[in-house]
Amino acid sequence: MSNNCNSGCNCNDEKNNDKSTKDEFIATPHELSNIKKVIGVVSGKGGVGKSLVTSLLAVNTKKKGYNSAILDADITGPSIPKAFGIKDKVTGNEFGLFPNKSKSGIQIMSTNLLLDNDTDPVVWRGPILANTVKQFWSDVIWHDVDFMFIDMPPGTGDVPLTVFQSISIDGIIIVTSPQELVSMIVSKAVKMAEMMKIPIIGLIENMSYFKCPDCDKIHNIFGDGQVEKTSEKYNIEFLGKIPIDPKISNLCDQGTIESYENNFLNKAVEKIEQINRLKKEDLSMIKIAVASENENVTEHFGHCKNFNIFEIENNQITKTSSIDNPGHKPGFLPKFLNEKGVNIIISGGMGKSAIDIFNQNSIKVITGAVGNAKSIVEEYLKGSLKSTNSVCHEHKHHDDCEG
Ligand code: ADP
Predict the structure, then answer these.
(1) pLDDT at residue 1, rounded to an integer
(2) 52 ligand 1 Cβ < 6 A
(3) Which of 52, 110, 185 to mutate to test the pocket of ligand 1 (most atoms within 8 A of CB)?
């Protein structure tokens, strides 16, 4: 986090020179804090598992060796300390407050850790709530944090908006459950993120299905596929599904969520690790590469003539360029395009091994496209381009498509 102003007004902060709505209100973190990346976790309403996802992201990044922290901004329903079994109140000295630490060392700050009795209801009004969150940012000394996850107040109303305005957030993760009006919630979250100029990292579906413990059969209790379809419609990366698991609620109740072994959020954690390597400007920009023969999409990825590159900001093409195909060697092109910062690749056909490598690098692959490269990208931005998921393994160009 870069904040150079000592007066707290951010007047000489480089970021503040661009007069975005957001930066005018941003609070300065405590001068003794060191926080690298801040990720807001949002949901349309309470009870969908936002706090659970926040907790598991902190736990899973901690397990990978990062210093993680949770700022519990869900002031009226603070469930984080309970899930981690933290009862001790917050301490401090003349310089500021210290967050509590979980068993594995995750730094945590929540209103529950300030109240005398953690069952006391918090009935403060919006501005006071937002101010409290601001203080969690400004008055708490966060020690050497790689990833801070903010459990945002639910919804897209005033309180989450003020929190967004107060804290320098690098990206948001949206949590939905399949029984919600997913499309409406996602569209609201997208608008909020656009207003605040915060990139959306991806979408996570909680309470996605139930796996029968006796026969392993999967039951899609609230229906199937809506959340994934919505993420496609809004060009938001789908980062994973968490099933309904009675063990989760038991562990949260017992304060031992850190012991929950899972791989549901592996993709989300990988994505977060990538963010760590990127600058904020890179995050809000999408780069699409279209494997082409001059202006048109090619049928055979590996042997395309050139890649038409489209840079996208706020769902609009802002820059177009073309790079020649540097040559066809198995496994080379996915690495080459990844290094060029490409997030999405569009082609007519592609071999399975190339698709796998792209997926491992969190690059989205769209196959089956035909026609003019720019028109195809415009179709994609409108949400009307669908991948046929066609893999080249049967026709004579199989090797050419491997990339
Ligand atoms: P939110 O933060 O969106 O209000 P929480 O994460 O606090 O929601 O979850 C609400 C309740 O549902 C908690 O008691 C939690 O333990 C439980 N819960 C959340 N996700 C799951 C799940 N996938 N399986 C079982 N219980 C869950």
Answers:
(1) 39
(2) yes
(3) 52
Distance 249 CA to ligand 1 centre (A): 7
| Residues 217-268 pLDDT 10s | 999 888 777 888 888 888 888 999 999 999 999 999 999 999 999 999 999 9
CA angle 67, 242, 249 (to 5 degrees): 80
Q: Is 248 near ligand 1, meaning CB less than 6 Å away?
A: yes
| Residues near 219 by beta carbon (within 8 Å), at least 6 away in sequence | 209, 210, 211, 212
In this predicted structure, what is the pLDDT of residue 13?
40
8 lines ligand 1 (CB under 6 A): no
What contacts 271, CB < 8 A, 6 or more positions away?
201, 202, 237, 239, 362
Q: What mean pLDDT comes out for the span 270-279?
A: 78
The verdict on pTM exceeding 0.90 is no
> How many A from CA of 275 to the centre of ligand 1?
26
The answer to whether the CB of 75 falls within 8 A of the CB of 129 is yes
CA quadruple 24, 199, 105, 56: dihedral, nearest 10: 140
Atom of ligand 1 nearest to the CA of 243: 23
Pair 397, 300: CB distance under 8 Å: yes
Q: How far is the CA of 395 from the centre of ligand 1 (A)?
A: 48
